[in-house]
Amino acid sequence: MDEALILETTYLIDLEREAARRQPGPATAFLEGHAEARLHVTFTVAGEIAAGASLSDRARWEAFLAPFRVLGCDRDVCWEYGRAYRYLSDNGLLIGANDLWIAATAKAHGLPVVTRNEKHFRRVPGLEVRSYGPPA
After folding, report:
1. pTM of the model
2. Count of C-beta atoms within a 10 Å radius of residue 118
3. What CA–CA distance (Å, rounded) separates 135 from 117?
4. Domain 4-131 grouped into CATH 3.40.50.1010
């Protein structure tokens, strides 16, 4: 089976912290359990990672993101964002804009999102969510 996944910001932060501490944890274990998967991040995740202090150096940021394909924004992503926004807004369930872009990108590409913030992302109808550790 050719598995593909979108890694959410919390996951990447946990993975980076585990590597920096040299203490494997839930993020590392999830990655080891999906060694053959094609791993993606969204354009918003790449931006959020660039905004963090630990990867504020461009070369370190590029090296950290090198194993992942960065998915951009296109018409399908924008449409999914609008659909999800309308539903969440109409039902009093809105999530943050960046998380909504992550969810929209995942829906547009038909890929699951890997996160600890499972409850939050499960608000988006039809989004496949994979948890890797204790809730955020």
Report:
1. 0.92
2. 16
3. 6
4. yes
**What residue type is 18 in one-letter code?**
E
pLDDT in tens, 100-127: 999 999 999 999 999 999 999 999 999 9
6: amino acid identity, one letter? I
DSSP 117-131: -HHHHTTSTT--EEE
| Integer Cα distance of 22 and 43 in angstroms | 27
How many other β-carbons are positioned within 10 Å of the β-carbon of residue 3? 11
CA–CA distance, 14 with 24 (Å, rounded to integer)? 10
Question: Could you tell me the sign of the dihedral formed by the alpha carbons of 28, 45, 43, 77, in that order?
Answer: positive
Which ranges constitute the DSSP H helices of the chain?
9-21, 26-33, 43-51, 58-65, 75-90, 97-109, 118-121
CA 94 to chain centre: 17
State the helix-helix crossing angle for 9-21 and 26-33, rounded to 10 degrees: 110
Instruction: Give the total residue count for the chain.
Output: 136
- Identify whether the C-beta of residue 65 lies closer than 8 Å to the C-beta of residue 48: no
Residue with tokens 């999800």: 84
Alpha-carbon span 26 to 85, nearest angstrom:
31
